Amino acid sequence: MSRKKISKELRQKLKEKYNCNCGYCETPLKDRFHIDHIKPYHNDGECEENNLIAVCISCNLQKGGMPLEDFRDFIEDKLNQLKLVANYEIAKRYGLLEEKPKKIKFYFERIKK
Ligand SMILES: [Zn+2]
Question: How far is the CA of 13 from the centre of ligand 1 (A)?
Answer without folding.
Answer: 17
